[in-house]
Amino acid sequence: MGGCGSGRRYRYSTKGTLDASSRLDIRYLKNQGMLRGGYYSLSWNRNGEPTGNVSVRIVAGESMTVIYKWRRNSSEEWQPAEKVVRLAHTACALGGSRPWFVCPYCSRRVAIVIVDGAHVACRHCLNLTYASCNEDMIDRSWRKRDKIKSRLGGDDINIYVKPKGMHQRTWERLRWQYQNAELQGWEWMEARLEALRGWR
Ligand SMILES: [Zn+2]
Q1: Which residue in 180, 17, 29, 199 sits closest to 101, CA to CA?
Q2: How far apart are the C-alpha atoms of 142 and 25, rounded to whole Å?
Q3: Could you give the angle at the alpha carbon of 32 between the alpha carbons of 68 and 22, nearest 5°?
Q4: Does residue 30 belong to any structural domain of this protein?
Q5: pTM here?
Q6: What is the whole-number distance in angstroms between the Cα of residue 27 and the centre of ligand 1?
Q7: Do both 139 and 159 map to the same domain?
Q8: What's the N-to-C CA distance of the chain in angstroms?
């Protein structure tokens, strides 16, 4: 169960990203009358805390453009993103029609797309990305990071506080290695996402 990234995505999403799992549900957009076209602002909350917001520009029957800023963590600059998702309709048996998003990656018709960092895609594509990621390289990075983490104090780690009895120089080295391993793990994942983008 779970791909090589299933747990880690969550860890990343807790670090102040736009929110790795902001969902856009086309049924909600329809109920709000947004599919008639226009420019809207949508926001998400978790436990009363805002976790992100995006603007969407909708051209009726054509497309939804999601405009937002994202960053991997609070020490990074916000990066602007503008992603276009096509809209489709299928006829219902009892008349009328049902709207869908068309996933930019796999062209599947879906009711929900997820805003995940630099990507807006369906659940299948995002899961696939993480599940089929370069397990070796990514896992190696995380294992390395976790090993260093335990030396730095385990789950209660505060990389700005030197553990008791540790040499200053050792601490500085471990701190650097810790951050590096984390960065590297993410870069391998990003590489997978880039590969995925190429499928379009
Ligand atoms: Zn997809």
Answers
A1: 29
A2: 33
A3: 35
A4: yes
A5: 0.57
A6: 18
A7: yes
A8: 27
Clarify whether residues 66 and 45 are in a common domain.
yes
pLDDT of residue 192: 67
User: Which residues of the chain carry a pLDDT beneath 70?
Assistant: 1-21, 73-74, 127-137, 156, 191-200
The reported pLDDT for the residue numbered 53 is: 82
CA of 129 to the centre of ligand 1 (A): 10
Measured in Å, residue 102 CA sits from the centre of ligand 1 at 8
Residue 36: both structure tokens together: 């008639």
Range of the domain at 170: 134-197
- Total domains in the chain come to 2
From ligand 1's centre to the CA of 126, what distance in Å? 7
Confirm whether 1 is domain-assigned.
no
Cα–ligand 1 centroid distance for 89 (angstroms): 17
Whether residues 36 and 124 share a domain: the answer is: yes
pLDDT of residue 17: 38
User: pLDDT tens across 60-82, in order?
Assistant: 999 999 998 887 766 778 888 89
Q: Give the pLDDT confidence score for residue 185 in this predicted structure.
A: 79
Q: Is residue 20 in a domain?
A: yes
One domain, residues 99 and 190: no
Return the H-helix or E-strand segment holding 179: helix 168-197
